[in-house]
């Protein structure tokens, strides 16, 4: 993909190569494919081809998603769990219907305390329900954040909040980023998640950073977090 972005080879040729990996079982390969498709999705988010790339993601990731399923199989290793989370998250964000329906079902059971999600499924489920959710979904997620005993879970939620799609809810997430609910060192993760979540999120996050620049700069005093914020 770097060669395609540089205009050396056709993006179409890259997508054809990606299609050849549908039976690939290796986590590292899928992680690389996911990253490159994410970059391509960002580049295409300002064009008429954005929905087409979501269809492509669903087509490429659904066979491996069906093979892996939602639940661990006997003899699975750590990389299999990572791969499951990666694939289900990718399918969920891209609007794969069966993945979205199952994510919503499991999220409801998790919130009600009927069946708590395993750690490796939480991020993909959270991302999926937020991406296709409403104000009620966001409120539930913020409630989970407030109730979380472990900082690891709070951070997990903070990283995915930017998946929410509606402009007014994006603003709510950005306001939350600077609230006392979020540790100062974690504010950048929330803003970065918004910037990486959608075209609307990217614009809103950039405006938010400009509007709150003095507070953000004073908070981080020119350290590595301000550099990371600018990068995202």
Class inferred from helices and paired strands: mainly alpha
What fraction strand? under 5%
Mean pLDDT: 91
Helix content: over 70%
Radius of gyration from CA coordinates? 18 Å
The main pleated sheet reads as:
none
Can you tell me the overall shape?
Answer: globular
The sequence of SSEs as H and E is HHHHHHHHHHHHHH
The number of distinct helices, counting runs of at least 4 residues, comes to 14
Q: Could you describe the 3D structure shown?
A:
The protein has 232 residues and is mainly alpha-helical. It has a domain at 1-94. Helices cover 72% and strands 0% of the residues. The chain has 14 helices and no strands. α8 packs antiparallel against α9 (151-160) and α11 packs antiparallel against α12. The two termini are 20 Å apart. The model has no long low-confidence stretch (mean pLDDT 91).
Question: What is the topological layout?
Answer:
Layout: H1 2-5, H2 11-19, H3 27-44, H4 50-68, H5 78-93, H6 97-111, H7 119-131, H8 135-147, H9 151-160, H10 167-177, H11 187-197, H12 199-211, H13 213-220, H14 224-231
Helix pairs in contact: 3-4, 3-5, 4-5, 5-6, 5-7, 6-7, 8-9, 9-11, 10-11, 10-12, 11-12, 11-14
């Amino acid at each position: 993909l770097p060669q395609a972005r540089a205009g050396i080879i056709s993006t179409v040729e890259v997508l054809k190569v990606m299609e050849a990996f549908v039976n690939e079982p290796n986590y590292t390969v899928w992680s690389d494919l996911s990253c490159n498709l994410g970059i391509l999705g960002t580049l295409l988010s300002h064009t008429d081809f954005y929905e087409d790339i979501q269809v492509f993601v669903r087509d490429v990731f659904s066979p491996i998603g069906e093979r892996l399923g939602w639940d661990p199989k006997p003899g699975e290793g750590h990389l299999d769990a990572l791969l499951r989370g990666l694939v289900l998250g990718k399918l969920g964000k891209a609007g794969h219907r069966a993945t979205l329906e199952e994510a919503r079902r499991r999220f409801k059971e998790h919130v009600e305390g009927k069946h708590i999600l395993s750690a490796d499924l939480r991020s993909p489920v959270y991302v999926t329900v937020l991406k296709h959710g409403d104000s009620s979904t966001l409120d539930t997620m913020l409630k989970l954040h407030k109730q979380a005993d472990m900082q690891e879970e709070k951070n997990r939620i903070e990283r995915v909040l930017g998946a929410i799609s509606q402009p007014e809810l994006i603003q709510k997430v950005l306001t939350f980023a600077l609230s006392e609910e979020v540790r100062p060192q974690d504010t950048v993760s929330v803003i970065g998640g918004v910037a990486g979540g959608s075209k609307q999120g990217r614009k809103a996050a950039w405006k938010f950073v400009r509007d709150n620049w003095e507070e953000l700069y004073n908070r981080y005093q020119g350290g590595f977090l301000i550099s990371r914020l600018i990068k995202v």
